[in-house]
């Protein structure tokens, strides 16, 4: 059995995590509009530590980092442009 349930904000289009202040979904590129609320079960996951990745929008230049094992963020949360991850060696945030 899973632990407690929690309400989470998600993108109405792809149901991925909604981050407060985003104008576009980082995962599918859709305009955020009004997020949906879903209830999720918490589960403990063990494994290797997350990987730090840098993202930079090819359209507007907005920059951010992620720390996850699987990074599915491909779209800029500010303008909706393409924002693939780049390695720490190729780009550094200043």
Helices and strands in order:
Elements: E1 5-10, E2 36-41, E3 51-56, E4 63-68, E5 85-86
Structure description:
By secondary structure, the protein is mainly beta. It has strands at residues 5-10, 36-41, 51-56, 63-68, 85-86. β3 (51-56) and β4 (63-68) form a beta hairpin.
Structure classification: mainly beta
- The end-to-end span amounts to 44 Å
Give the CA-based shape: flat
Order of helices and strands: EEEEE
User: What's the pLDDT, averaged over the residues?
Assistant: 77
Q: Quick one: how many beta strands?
A: 5
Portion of residues in helices?
under 10%
Count of individual helical segments:
0
List low-pLDDT spans. 89-94
Rounded to an integer, what's the Rg over CA atoms? 15 Å
β-strand percent reads: 25-35%
Summarize the structure.
With 94 residues, the protein is mainly beta. It is built from no helices and five strands. The chain has strands at residues 5-10, 36-41, 51-56, 63-68, 85-86.
Question: Main traits of this protein?
Answer:
94 residues, mainly beta, two-stranded antiparallel ribbon
């Amino acid at each position: 059995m899973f632990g407690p349930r929690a309400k989470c904000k998600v993108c109405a289009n792809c149901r991925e995590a909604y981050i407060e202040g985003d104008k576009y979904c980082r995962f599918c590129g859709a305009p955020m509009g009004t997020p949906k609320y879903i209830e999720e079960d918490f589960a403990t996951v063990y494994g290797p530590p997350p990987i730090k990745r840098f993202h930079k929008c090819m359209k507007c230049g907005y920059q951010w980092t992620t720390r996850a094992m699987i990074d599915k963020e491909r779209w800029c949360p500010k303008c909706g442009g393409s924002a693939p991850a780049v390695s720490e060696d190729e780009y550094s945030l200043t």
